[in-house]
Amino acid sequence: MKLRIVPLLITSLTTFSNLASAATEVTVPMPPDASLLEQRSMTLNLNTASVEDLMALPGIGESKARAIIEYRTRMGGFVEVEQLTEVKGIGDKLLEKLKTLVSVY
C-alpha cells in the first residue's frame, strides 16, 4: 500500500507545482496611463474618453478633464485635436504635450 502512495504523491505534487507556476505567469492588463499610451503608440480618443482616462494625461487634472468633457458635449464632439485649445486652461504649450497622446475619431 505504501509503495503505491509514494508515486501517486509525487505525481500529484508535480501536477500542482506546474499549475502554480503557470498561474504566476498570467498577466493582468492594467488601465492605461500616459506613459503606457506613449510606449504603445496608442492614442486616447477625445470623443469617448472618461474623466479618469483624461486625468491620466500629463497636465490634465480633474477640473480640466471635466472641462474637456463639457466642451465635447456642448460642441457635439471634437473634430480635431487642436480644438483642445478652446477648452479653458489648455493652451498651445499643453496641446503640444498632448498631441501625440490623443486623437479624434
TrEMBL record:
Q: Tell me which domain of life the UniProt entry assigns to the organism this sequence originates from.
A: Bacteria
Residue ranges crossing the lipid bilayer per the database entry: none
Q: Does the keyword Metal-binding apply?
A: no
Pfam families according to UniProt: HHH_3 (PF12836)
N-terminal signal peptide:
1-22
The record's section on SMART domains has:
HhH1
Q: Does the keyword Phosphoprotein apply?
A: no
Q: Which InterPro entries match?
A: Competence_ComEA_HhH, Endo/Exo/Phosphatase_dom_1, Hlx-hairpin-Hlx_DNA-bd_motif, RuvA_2-like
Q: Which GO terms describe its cellular component?
A: type II protein secretion system complex
Extract the GO molecular function terms from the UniProt entry.
DNA binding
Keywords, A to Z, come to: Signal
Residue span(s) of domain Helix-hairpin-helix DNA-binding motif class: 52-71, 82-101
Q: What processes does the entry annotate via GO biological process terms?
A: DNA repair; protein secretion by the type II secretion system
Q: Which NCBIfam families does this chain map to?
A: competence protein ComEA helix-hairpin-helix repeat region
Q: Mind telling me what this protein is named?
A: Helix-hairpin-helix domain-containing protein
The organism of origin for this protein = Alteromonas aestuariivivens
